[in-house]
Amino acid sequence: MIQFANRRDAGQRLAAKLHAYKNRADALVLGIPRGGVVVAAEIARALQAPLDIFIARKIGAPFNAELAIGALAQDGAVFWDDALIAELHLSDRAVQRARVAQQAEIERRVKLYRGARPPLNIQNKNVIVADDGVATGATTIAALRALRQHQPARLGLAIPVAPRQVAPLLRAECDEVILLDTPEPFQAVGFFYADFEQVTDNEVIEILTAQAPPLTQAPS
């Protein structure tokens, strides 16, 4: 079992597996806030690639926000766990109320993190999506499906750790998965880090301000 010192360490280890993308004009790294932005920043720095964000949020069950019934991406793409929704006997109204709540949070974060900057155009780019780890895979799958609609030339995923049974689901959604460890039993993402303190909104803003290039392109 690999243990990472912190998210920066995880990003640096992932970057070492992505050297083929270094100094490529068509490479682009996207971090999933909040923790994934720290990982993505290390990858982007090592590859000399532009850094941007792509937000996806877990949609929690009405009675338990930690129980994912789906996930929502910033452009509206949604991934539902239909089997779980049926098992829990959730009404359409309850499901949509949970989705609307996450949409509001996504809109808040986009405005806060990005300000007036439009997103980088990812069409025909080699896109690497990074996060600090995957548990159920719901938010990651929502993000990958949404990004695929923007027609990147190649869509890759770089993550430090994920459950063994989730890895095939992730590989089915993109062209390449860089995954450093699939430990069993899998407890929680934070278990595999010595330092897994919560990343704040201000830290995300600071990383993007320091490292993201001026975003002058039209939205994709």
Quick synopsis:
With 220 residues, this protein is an alpha/beta fold.
What would you note in describing this structure?
This protein is of the alpha/beta class. It folds into two domains: 7-55 and 121-211, Rossmann fold (3-Layer(aba) Sandwich); 58-112, 2-Layer Sandwich (Ybab, Chain: A), CATH 3.30.1310. Helix content is 35%, strand content 21%. The protein has seven helices and eight strands. It has helices at 7-15, 35-47, 82-87, 92-114, 138-148, 167-171, 201-211, and strands spanning 27-31, 51-53, 56-61, 64-73, 78-80, 126-130, 154-161, 176-181. The strands form two sheets. It has a five-stranded parallel sheet with strand order 2-1-6-7-8, with helices on both faces. Strands 3-4-5 form a three-stranded antiparallel sheet. α1 (7-15) runs parallel beside α2 (35-47) and α2 packs parallel to α7 (201-211). The N and C termini lie far apart (39 Å). Residues 215-220 have low confidence and may be disordered.
Total beta strands: 8
Query: What is the element string, with H for helices and E for strands?
Result: HEHEEEEHHEHEHEH
Multimerization status: single chain
Mean pLDDT value: 91
| Helix fraction bin | 25-40%
- Which architecture of the largest domain per CATH? 3-Layer(aba) Sandwich
**Which sequence of strands runs across the widest sheet?**
2-1-6-7-8
List the helices and strands and how they pair.
Blueprint: H1 7-15, E1 27-31, H2 35-47, E2 51-53, E3 56-61, E4 64-73, E5 78-80, H3 82-87, H4 92-114, E6 126-130, H5 138-148, E7 154-161, H6 167-171, E8 176-181, H7 201-211
Helix pairs in contact: 1-2, 2-7, 4-7
